[in-house]
Design brief:
The structure is a homodimer. By secondary structure, the first copy, chain A, is of the alpha/beta class. The first copy, chain A, has 2 domains: 68 residues, Winged helix-like DNA-binding domain superfamily/Winged helix DNA-binding domain (Arc Repressor Mutant, subunit A); 201 residues, 3-Layer(aba) Sandwich (Rossmann fold), CATH 3.40.50. The first copy, chain A, contains 8 helices and 12 strands. In chain A, the strands form 4 sheets. A 6-stranded mixed sheet of chain A has the order 6-5-9-10-11-12, sandwiched between helices. Chain A has a two-stranded antiparallel ribbon with strand order 1-2. In chain A, strands 3-4 form a two-stranded antiparallel ribbon. The radius of gyration of chain A is 21 Å and the shape is globular. At the A-B interface, helix 1, helix 3, strand 4, helix 5 and helix 6 of A face helix 1, helix 3, strand 4, helix 5 and helix 6 of B. Chains A, B: This is Purine operon repressor.
Chain lengths: 276, 276
Amino acid sequence: MKRSERLVDMVKYLLARPHTLIALPFFAERYDAAKSSISEDLAILKQTLASNQDGILETVAGAAGGVRYIPFIGKNYAREYLTELADRIEEPDRILPGNFVYLSDILGSPQDLRRIGQLIATKYAYSNVDYVMTVETKGIAIAQAVSRFLNVPFVLVRRRPKITEGATISVNYVASSSDRVEKMELAKRSLPSDSNVLIVDDFMKGGGTLTGMEELVNEFDCHVVGMSVLCETKYASQKVVDDYQSLIKITEVDRNKKLIKVEPGNFLEQTDFDRF
Amino acid sequence: MKRSERLVDMVKYLLARPHTLIALPFFAERYDAAKSSISEDLAILKQTLASNQDGILETVAGAAGGVRYIPFIGKNYAREYLTELADRIEEPDRILPGNFVYLSDILGSPQDLRRIGQLIATKYAYSNVDYVMTVETKGIAIAQAVSRFLNVPFVLVRRRPKITEGATISVNYVASSSDRVEKMELAKRSLPSDSNVLIVDDFMKGGGTLTGMEELVNEFDCHVVGMSVLCETKYASQKVVDDYQSLIKITEVDRNKKLIKVEPGNFLEQTDFDRF
């Protein structure tokens, strides 16, 4: 097999398995090639990815070594995308009665979900995330997108009891949108204790739902490594969480005036792009 | 830029944008290379993908021509994966009270969702799908996985009214699991009329939910191009749909006897792998 053919297959293989250590002998056997040739292939791959600010190929030395593909997006590209996304959300047609904002098109767009997943996975690339957690329903798209690029499972917290998940642990929380005490629960078998959990959601107002998930993580004897939301909105009272990132921030919305103002959230400042 | 570097970038670019026509001049400009060199690159790419039964690079000739990456999985690989998946589901621990089966781990696994998405996208690669449709909650993971590989948006039917989606159209349906008449609805703006819709879901018993979605597609003046579910189970009465594919079939489940029998569903017979 020629180098060019090996490279094509290698990229495909690695992209489908981010954050996974692949031993050199695996590729040598797959392509029936010398380890020295494989090393040269990987050097080319590494350099090309690095020069495009579009993922890293990490080399792990030693007998148990190999390579690991880490998806990431550079800061300029991140800023460009979030600015463009904010512009798209800044359409008066999106304002629904009650000043809610229609985002379902973005939450169903594979190209947006790819970028959103890459962005959040960039921030948490070295946080040893074991599970991504979200709460039904719209958070699922975000969780699945991040899960793909961190290559770890996601778990789904339910707002209503389900009979198809077995025993659960539940917590109460105060929903910022209604100020009511509600209940959320997670299947016991879905999250092993001592896991590192990244919490994500589509929308955040006061942070009540995020706080509920934090509490649930504690009830499972796990650790919260971070919280990211696609979109936060201004909130009259004090938010109940402060350590979170938002990709997008809605600063003003008024259906009567057909006015909506949107800007990139605090994600750009809170992410250390220079590590890469 | 060297050929090897161009190839690495091209694969990455095309894999992120399946089913999208990319004009040759786009690549020529991106790499500052002659069109003849780009044509040679693409020929290498095409051949490597074809020999691995792992996607196709379609060439579209003419002035408006270019290349298009079509993800697909070969039949042997599909059979191997579905057999292995059936084995994993055949664990007595998965049987919940009421003979429900725990599948949440598979619906949250990025590697399973990648394969499930590729499989369903293989079957519908040439069906001109415009939208993937599913109903909350667990179907979302399947819809998003398929949406990624067909590179079309997915829309989410709700079982309960939501205030964050604007005007909706609703239908009634009879849920096979409860025999009760229920209601499902979809935001009007989420699905333009005359679209081709692929319906997917995680689980199917009698097919009542699928029928409800079919009706909803009709109410939107759209066309159903097919229906796929991850898992179907035996059902005492006649199923109300017959034109569907299931990846996995649960043929027996009995919590008292700790017995569960699972096999690949009708997907393999119903898919024409030889088109590729």
